[in-house]
Amino acid sequence: MRKLHAENERIKRRYLAYLKEAKGRDQKTLDKAAAALVKFEESSKFKPFKKFNRDQAGRFKVYLEKARHLKSGQPLSLSTIDATLRLVKGFFHWLAGQPGFKSVVSYTDVEYFNNNTKNARAAHAQRQIQFPTMKAAFHAFQGMPNGSEMEKRDKAIFAFFLLTGARIGAVASFRLKHVNLIDGNVFQYGREVDTKFSKTFTTWFFPVDPAYLDCFTAWVDFLRSDKLFGQEDALFPKPERRLVQGKFVFDTLSRDCYSGTGPINKILRNAFAMVQLPEYTPHSIRSTLGQELSDLELPLDAQKAWSQNMGHKSIITTQSAYLHVPERRQGELMKALAKK
Predict the structure, then answer these.
(1) What is the C-alpha separation between 24 and 174, in angstroms, rounded?
(2) HSE-up of 315 (CA within 13 Å, CB side)?
(3) pLDDT level of residue 20 (50, 70, 90 thresholds)
(4) Which of 146, 184, 247, 322 has its CB surrounded by the most CB atoms within 10 Å?
(5) With helix as H, strand as E and coil as C, how does the chain read?
(6) What are the CA-CA distances from residue 233 to residues 146, 173, 210 (Å)?
(7) Domain map of the chain by residue range?
(8) How far apart are the first and last CA of the chain?
(9) 124 vs 37, 83, 131, 200, 219, CA distance in Å?
(10) From the CB of residue 7, how many other CB atoms can be counted at a distance below 10 Å?
């Protein structure tokens, strides 16, 4: 059980409230900031923040370099270390302006949380993103069973990712009322669907293999006709717990959405693993759709529509985040240009 310092806890609560109310940060960001501050307190043996000095910043860097990931046991990645330093620096930068701390924490001392230039550059270096090709995704989709209620749901989830490119948080929170099969779109309403930055936009189904739409349509019809689901019920409901012969089983559907994204993430990973492919994540499907945008060689207005369909205001966002050119393809393109 970790130690607690009462005054530190009060100050952290004020800071998290500041991030939420003044800066508009979401709960995930607040959780990351809180976890980073706990790491700092561990490195300083939970000394009060009023005893902060620049040496503690240096010791914190050493602490992070020696720290290990709780699950894998591996050293923390450079990107994790860099992000943690930034979060803690942000806290002390705020603290330096608070009554009672202005004479204790100077803005100059806060700068000692900066990562060294080499590690910071390496932490933000662009890495090759692994994502499935359209062919690989369809192969995994075809390999998924479609017998039980759970299997039908899982296969429909896979199809939905290819049809919409939606983020996993949104997929977990969609309800039937957000689906329009007649016009072929889903309404990502930021007040009800867990979209990034609570953004509201409409996504029309991407022009992918018709089997995806057939699967998803059959799933929606199954919910509405067979299960008698209403508009407020979950599009991809979590299992319902039942007691059978003295044991709890999860073999039927509830009407509620998942509270987290872990189970949906596992569904896609397992689908790829079942056909001996890497366990691609739901988010990697957005890169698959980004590559499809490049391969189709669409006119500019169609590219813009594709980008908006993914929830981006600017097509540059789509190109920089999800349109990846592998090193081998980069070489092919450059050699072709040289021949011209």
Answers:
(1) 23
(2) 11
(3) very high
(4) 322
(5) CCCCCHHHHHHHHHHHHHHHHCCCCCHHHHHHHHHHHHHHHHHCCCCCHHHCCHHHHHHHHHHHHHCECCCCCCECCHHHHHHHHHHHHHHHHHHCCCCCCCCCCCHHHHHHHCCCHHHHHHHCCCCCCCCCCHHHHHHHHHCCCCCCHHHHHHHHHHHHHHHHCCCHHHHHHCEHHHEECCCCEEEECCCCCCCHHHCCEEEECCCCCHHHHHHHHHHHHHHHHHCCCCCCCECCCCEEEEEECCEEEEEEECCCCCCCCHHHHHHHHHHHHCCCCCCCCCCHHHHHHHHHHHHHCCCHHHHHHHHHHCCCCCHHHHHHHHCCCCHHHHHHHHHHHHHC
(6) 22, 10, 26
(7) 6-123, 134-145+153-236+258-322
(8) 67
(9) 22, 10, 20, 29, 41
(10) 10
- Of the candidates 246, 243, 223, 225, the residue with the CA atom closest to the CA atom of residue 233: 223
Higher-scoring residue by pLDDT: 93, 332:
93
Whether the pLDDT of residue 197 is over 90: the answer is no
Distance CA 35, CA 290 (A): 33
Q: Are 200 and 190 in contact (CB under 8 A)?
A: yes
What is the mean pLDDT of the segment spanning 287-311? 91
How confident is the model at residue 2, as a pLDDT? 55
- Decide: 199 and 190 in contact? Cβ < 8 Å: yes
Tens digits of per-residue pLDDT, 200-221?
999 999 999 999 999 999 999 9
- Tokens, residue 35: 């976890």
The token pair that represents 228 in the structure block: 């008698």
CA–centroid distance for 190 within its chain: 16
- pLDDT higher than threshold 50 for residue 240: yes
Read off the amino acid at residue 100.
Answer: G
Per-residue model confidence as pLDDT tens digits over 120-136: 776 665 566 789 999 99
Give burial (CB, 10 Å; 0-12/13-18/19+) of 198: middle
